[in-house]
Design a protein that fits this description.
It comes from Agromyces ramosus. This protein has about 450 residues and is α/β, with parallel strands linked by helices. It is built from 16 helices and 13 strands. The strands form 2 sheets. A 7-stranded parallel sheet has the order 3-2-1-4-5-6-7, with helices on both faces. Strands 10-9-8-11-12-13 form a 6-stranded parallel sheet, with helices on both faces. The longest helix is centred in the middle third of the chain and has 18 residues.
Length: about 450
Amino acid sequence: MVESGMAEVMIAVMPFQGHVAPMAAVARAFVEAGHGVRVYTGSAHADRFTAVGAQALRWTSAPDFDEHDLAATFPMLRGRKGPRQMLANVEHVFVRTAAAQSDDLVRAFDERPWDVVVADGLSLGAHLASERTRTPWVTVSIVPLAIPSRDLPPPMLGLAPATGALGRLRDRALRAVARAGAYGIRRAYIAERARAGLPANGRSFDEAWYSSDLVCATGVAELEFARSDLATHVVFVGELTRATAGGAALPTWWDEVAASAEPVVHVTQGTLNVDPHDLIEPTFAALGRQPVLVVAATGRADDPSLPFPAPPNARVAGLLPYGALLPRVDVMVTNGGWGGVLAALAAGIPLIVAGGDLDKPGVAARVAWSGAGVNLRSGRPSARTVLRGWRRVSTDAAYRVNAARIAERLAEHHGPAEVVEHTLRLLATRQPPAAATAE
């Protein structure tokens, strides 16, 4: 630990809204504790971090991009959905930008060395920069853990672990298939290490996203599949962002929600893949004639309009203030964004999860495994599937009981403060390298 007791902290954040909000809370916690904080992220989100008192550093060598139009910067993503999109996103947005990210970070280190880099778990460039500067690296896993395990199927398939000898054989075979399917991504990772001037380090690509010193995992153990090989340096920290009265403005029709005598069902399309045909449209078709008030968030604050009509019992906004909304919600229909799922569960709301790609099928599987909701097993469910899910969650009290149980566990944590506490403990016990200078 530095002699003054105050640390120089570099926070690395992939420039997506779903990553920025929780990491802004972490940055604020470090600033409020008196530490020097710089944040490396895309230009669209820099103001979010300066607002909490941190110094923002923008992607420069790494290609800055608009999360709502990834294909403008990464044309190879155009027209892809499902598994093909997931693989292409991981390879081109997260992996093939890693060396350039690390170049930006190393320049910042040369200008003013940091004591520790605290990184969004999908910021692979921070991992490379940590190696290049020989400084500690803390992973903040803002999506469910995808650390490989001998007890689990591949994380992106959205499967709960199987049981029995045949089930374990299934999972072992799926792990082998997943490794083969990710061959191109592994090659890209090796190439990025070479571009950053780094040799092989003995860690597999699946392990490369996670620090070997400290992983602060969002969520609670009740939402994590049981495994026998979870490392002791993985700690659960609950939520990083709690629903408050601030945030998005209340829409003009808010009084109808506040006065509604009918149960309120919230449907959210998330903030990344925001095609409303995927989830909002089938939810409208499923619940348009049910005795509920449907409140939809399109994920686009700049344009909340829809390309199809809303039923009479639906209200639509781009974004909504969860501190005001969630206490009034009976059931939530979600695309599986982890932050929104945790916010709903913290409010004791049972879930209907339509996880289509990236980490979202895994989120859906965890929610179902915990008993706090149902997994629709598709990012584009039919109206009939949504209706069946709503009826199950609305009529079986066990879902609400389990959501309340998880809410109690989440309430025991104060995520951002715990990230600071665990990070400082790591620095206090770690011996600095002989020469902490960039290579």
